[in-house]
Amino acid sequence: MQTAPVPVPVPVPPGTASALPPASPLPPAPLHIGPLPLEIPVVLAPMAGITNTAFRRLCREFGAGLYVSEMITSRALVERTPESMRLIRHHESETPRSIQLYGVDPTTVAEAVRILVAEDHADHIDLNFGCPVPKVTRKGGGAALPWKLDLFRAIVSGAARAAEDIPLTVKMRKGIDSEHLTYLDAGRTAEDAGVAAIALHARTASEFYSGHADWSAIARLKETVTSIPVLGNGDIWSAEDALRMVAETGCDGVVVGRGCLGRPWLFGDLAAGFRGQEQRARPGLDTVARTFRRHAELLVEFFEDQDRACRDIRKHVAWYFKGYPVGGGIRAKLAMVESLAHLDDLLGAIDLTQPYPTEGVEGPRGRAGTPKHPSLPEGWLASRELAGSERRTLVDAELDTSGG
């Protein structure tokens, strides 16, 4: 395996930031999630195929926060599949270590938590109840599961007990659709079960990532759950969005997902914003290219396979170069990059002296999808309690793979 020397981490250099109006009033700092203090109340949302060790390390180089792993399936972890055991490993520079678990069986989820705690794999564990993907919800998992409040209670309570002194949190959506909202009941239940914090993506499963997040739901959850932090998620594309969410909803911190795709420097902006500083990253094309190259190098280290790393970095091309004057021919070649040497050649063909564009870079990124009727097990909405026949359906929902 051939790799190029790893360069110095890529902070945004002088001259690539611009002053913005003074930030809005700050939330209390630091945010505490159980015993964990977070100087900056910002969490990187788990994203399948994105938030691996390489991307988490890159984001840390720009700003402070809590950086959560890709989703780890509890069954796969209990069975110790090679991929799951690889995904729960953290680089020595990562602290605190944060892992998200997905599961539908209380016993299996609790056992997965016990493994993470007993073998010292994590300083924070999050439970996924927000995934809207049809292959998950049609089996009763993800955002569909809190509808069965007894099952939700059993999973969260068992996991909280198994976590012992490690803070356990829950991430969820508003519900299945506008007629079947679950977040307030689930929030109260999770609070009673002893979780350390709750994060709400302010959309329903049926909305997927379309439209606009309903931040008023975050405010309602904050009014309902009063003894632990409530974190808001949805449509945070800039530091100003994060500060506005805190001001409008009263939430204790923010969870950032798609807004950082191709923009790991957003975490530097968020740190500056929450500190009341006015500067924001406005990287020229040279900084974007160096950061993209750094990401590729970290992926080589993570996968221990240059070919696999290059295949993975391809999906990030459109996000990194969004709005920048990079020709379609070069973009297409970058999306087929075969090695770090090939990547260097392609980046060397770009005029990297071009400054930050004034338009087209900021704002939404990633696939939004369209509203759709959620895929659910037959008869799932007939009752808030789990029927015996539905327990058999859930067996198939306990995926044996991790990472999405």
- Termini separation: 27 Å
Question: CATH architecture of the largest domain, please?
Answer: Alpha-Beta Barrel
CATH homologous superfamily (4th level) name of the largest domain = Aldolase class I
The CATH C-level name of the largest domain is Alpha Beta
- The 3D shape can be described as globular
CATH topology of the largest domain: TIM Barrel
Low-pLDDT runs of 5+ residues are 1-25
Strand content range: 5-15%
Topology, number of strands: 14
Would you tell me the structural class of the helices and strands?
alpha/beta
List the secondary-structure elements in sequence, H or E.
EEEEHEHHEHEHHEEEHEHEHEHEHHHHHH
Overview of this protein structure:
By secondary structure, the protein is of the alpha/beta class. It has two domains: 32-281 and 391-397, Aldolase class I (TIM Barrel, Alpha-Beta Barrel), CATH 3.20.20.70; 285-348, Non-ribosomal Peptide Synthetase Peptidyl Carrier Protein, Chain A, CATH 1.10.1200. It contains 16 helices and 14 strands. The protein has helices at 53-60, 74-78, 82-87, 106-118, 134-137, 149-163, 183-193, 215-224, 239-249, 266-274, 285-303, 306-313, 317-320, 328-334, 340-348, 388-397; strands spanning 17-19, 31-33, 36-38, 42-44, 66-73, 98-102, 124-129, 168-173, 175-177, 180-181, 197-201, 230-233, 253-256, 279-281. The strands form four sheets. Strands 4-5-6-7-8-11-12-13 form an eight-stranded parallel β-barrel, surrounded by seven helices. A two-stranded antiparallel ribbon has the order 1-14. Strands 2-3 form a two-stranded antiparallel sheet. β12 (230-233), α9 and β13 form a beta-alpha-beta unit. α11 packs across α12 (306-313) and α11 (285-303) runs antiparallel to α15. The longest helix has 19 residues, at 285-303. It is globular. Residues 1-25 have low confidence and may be disordered.
